[in-house]
Structure formats: C-alpha cells, structure tokens
Amino acid sequence: MTRGTEYAEGAAEQSPQLWAARAAFAEQGVLARHLRRLWAIPGTRLGVATWPASPRHRLLVNWNYWWQANLLDCLIDAQVRAPSPNRLRTIHQHVRGIRLRNFRQWTNEYYDDIAWLGLALLRASDELGLDTEDALDAITVRLREGWTDHGGGGIWWRRGDNLKNVPANGPAAILLARFAQDRADRQRARSITDWMDGYLRDRETGLLFDGLRTSPDGGIAGLVDIVYTYNQGTFLGACVELAADDRSGIWAERAERTIHAVAHHLAVEGVLPGRRGGDGGLFAGILARYLALSAIRLPEASGDLASWLVFTTADEAWRNRAVAPSGPLFGDEPGIPAITPRGPRDGRVERDLSVQVSGWMVMEAAAALEGHASMRS
Angle formed by the axes of helices 303-319 and 3-12, to 10°? Predict the structure, then answer.
C-alpha cells in the first residue's frame, strides 16, 4: 500500500464532517473580515484586498479582478458543500459587484483574468442555476480570439503583449473544455493543452514552466522558466476535463505524470509550498483544488497520491493557523505558523485576501474529497 493510499483511507475514517466543518470556519473568517459592499451600493459584495484594511483598500480602489474570481469559486464550493439561501444571495451580490466594479464589463485586457472569472461563472450557472450566459459569451469569444500561431500557438497573457503563459492558457483550456458549445471549443482546449505540454513542460521534472516570449516575426524569443504551483494545477485540470471523452488515455496519463511531478519536485513531504502574498498567495490553493478534482474524477491516475497531497497540505495549514476575529487566519506557507497582523501598516502577507482565499480553498478541497469518500462508503 502506498503512503498516499494509507493517508486517503485514514482521512476517510475520521469524522465525516471534519473537513467540512473546517472549511465552514475558514469561510466564516474570510467573509467576516474581507467581504464588503461595493461603494455602499445595495445588493453588492466584493472582497477587500487586505485585513486589517488600509483606507484605500476599504474603498475598493485596488481592483484585484482574479482574486475576486477565486473568491467566487470558493463561495460556490461552500454552497455545494452546505446549501444556504443566504450564501446564494451573497453569490448573486458578489457577481453583481464584480461587474459593477469592472465598469459594467465582464472582460479586461488580461486573458488570464477573464478565464478565471469564466470558470467561476460557469460553475455558478451549472451548479447553482445563475444566469451567466451573457458573461460567458463575452469571455469565451475573447478567449477564442486570443489564440495565434506566434510561439507555436497558445493564448496571449494580455492584449498587445509578447508573453504566452500557463496562467492564461491553463484556465482557458479548462473553461473551453467545460463550456464546449460545440466540438470546436473542445478541440481548442486540446490544442491549448497540447501547446503547453509541447512548449512549456520541463522534460526533466515533468513540471510546467511559466511561459515564453515571442519575437516580432512570431518566433520564440525566450523561455520564462519559472515553476509556479498553480500552473501545475491548471494544466492538471485541463487534462482531467479532456480525459472525459478520450479513449486513448493520453490525458489521464498526462494528469498522472503531473501529480507525480508535483509530489516529487514541488511538495515538501506532501505539503504544497506557498509563494508569499499578493498574486502568489493564491497559488497553493489553486493546485490543491485541481489535485482534489483529479482524485475524484480520475482516481485511477494516482488519485490516492493526489488526495494525500491535499490532505497533508490541509492538515499543515489548519495546524499552523492563527487566531483572528471570526475565524482562522492562514499563512502563505502551510507548514509555518501564521501570525495575526497588528494593523493596516503591518506588512505581513497574512493580511492579503489572496492568502486567506487560498487557505479556504485548501479546506474546501479536503472537504470535497471527504464528501466524495463518504458517498462511496
């Protein structure tokens, strides 16, 4: 029996509501400390970027578009885990707040931003029944337009830029595979994921590099050979989606390869590493989300190992949480004790909404695995 198998089975033998309860506490803390009306407009909610918040953040001057998308994803996780009319109302208000803060538009210049929001809005539609058709049409049209042959293919990171990277292509591939209004979208998702595998995979470790820059003639100017956790997660998520109708087994094989690469070359004794605050605060949680999805949807592709990585990371994050008003407060590194910030001038990364949403996301990933194990038993 592998270590992953032992851990997955051991976790399933715990209280069937252990991780669900921890996810609920995490949700309570994040929403109480960060969720506010947008500019006092009734019927709106947005996540404040920090807690304790500076005056600028309290006024929601800073616009962290993709943080809001992942906050929305966590709200949907919670609603699926424990349906509540109050939370459903909050989800409606949050979607409205995002659109109003984005000046009544669903898109911006960043293809990664809109792909993240598209993923959350598609789940809101499919799993909760929200009408997000107009938003999804606007987002997917923009993503389809983002593909060019520069650098061998792929979608741009931003309009007018020369960077093509996993942060844009990974979530775009997942969204197009799920949305799939026609066979062409499914093929687009395959082409995007093939491009990431062919151009950005490190042949030595199996991990995905961040991206590549193109030259004016369409060639490759250079490789951005940084390895980020969340890029492994979105590539894994795309493979999971594409494995659903694949008889060759190639996508399940790629998913399994990625899980092993994470376990052997990124995780430290099963714990996913953090990457400070800011945007990096979200990285570990996103990888945990797609590891859990892979374990549930493709259990034969090293599902036990994927589960072990999620539960081990969740255990460490919970054990090292700090005490804060309304609920637990997480650090950016699951294996290091979190420290409660002293005020709005404290530079600790624990203040960042991204870090707290990531911690909550890890708890929801563990709760999803727990719930899946309970259904099977």
Answer: 60
14, 212, 238 from 208: Cα distances, Å: 34, 11, 13
| pLDDT tens readout for residues 25-75 | 999 999 999 999 999 999 999 999 999 999 999 999 989 999 999 999 999
Q: Is 41 left (phi over 0), alpha (psi -120 to 50) or beta?
A: beta
* pTM of the entire predicted model: 0.95
- Burial of 194-222, coded b for 16+ CB within 10 Å and e otherwise, reads bbbbebbbeeeebbbbbbbbbeeeeeeee
Q: What angle do CA 153, 159, 161 make, to 5 degrees?
A: 75
Rounded Cα gap, residues 166 and 157, in angstroms: 8
Domain 3-376 matching CATH 1.50.10.20: the answer reads yes
φ, ψ at 291 (rounded to 5°): -65, -45
* Cα–Cα distance measured from residue 196 to residue 178, given in angstroms and rounded to the nearest whole number: 18
Using left for φ > 0, alpha for ψ between -120 and 50, and beta otherwise, residue 191 falls in alpha
Instruction: Strand 220-224: give its sheet, edge to edge.
Output: 163-165, 211-214, 220-224
